[in-house]
Amino acid sequence: MPRRRNHGGPSERSDRACLVLIALYENGTPFEPHIVDLGNAAAAGEFKKLWPIGKFPVLRDEARDRMVPESSIIIEYLDQHYPGKTRFLPADPDLARQTRMRDRFFDLYLQLPMQKVVGDRLRPPGKGDAFGVEQAKVQLQTALGMVDGDMATKTWAMGESFGTADCAAVPALYYANLITPFTSTYKHAAAYLDRLMGRPSVARTLKEAEPYRHLFPQERMPQD
Ligand SMILES: N[C@@H](CCC(=O)N[C@@H](CS)C(=O)NCC(=O)O)C(=O)O
Prior knowledge:
By secondary structure, this protein is an alpha+beta fold. The protein is built from eight helices and four strands; from the N terminus they run βαβαββαααααα.
């Protein structure tokens, strides 16, 4: 099996890398994980030679001599070149477009505002963006309400088949639930998150992140 390297960051900041891990575990695709510490200037410099944007995850496929950035694109690449029992994008172009739309939805309207709230907690004292966080929280509620309605009658984001949009939903919903718990407000979204967490590939990914869980900034420090 060709050698593939999945570059991710320390787990408290690499929730997008977990999407790719879910996809790799779903199909038992062999790979070599490579954790980059962006706090280490030499390691960060090496990583940025590969992907100057400097964001995780990135896949290096030595067999095909390809460097693939962006979590959803990596999953699409794996689906295309290393397909397994779980297909992440439907073959039908219209269904594939709808799947990508849901993937974008989770990324842009849940993941990004969630990262905004969390990222603000990591800022130095006095450098916070209270207004931006307020807007992000409103955006989160709107998006959660939409997910809740959408998931009232479905098992996975696209119906009965687990795919790339479900991978995107995992970190977005999991961390959104930590910063603004929604189990009693958005019951269908919460039940969907439960189903996701019960999926073996997801359970394994979250279990592996447990040792780093204490690094998640649950609350801003009181002195902040
Ligand atoms: N659109 C990118 C987003 C990647 C991203 O935001 N990665 C974060 C971790 S979740 C990162 O690399 N953070 C490190 C940094 O920004 O310095 C993707 O889906 O792969």
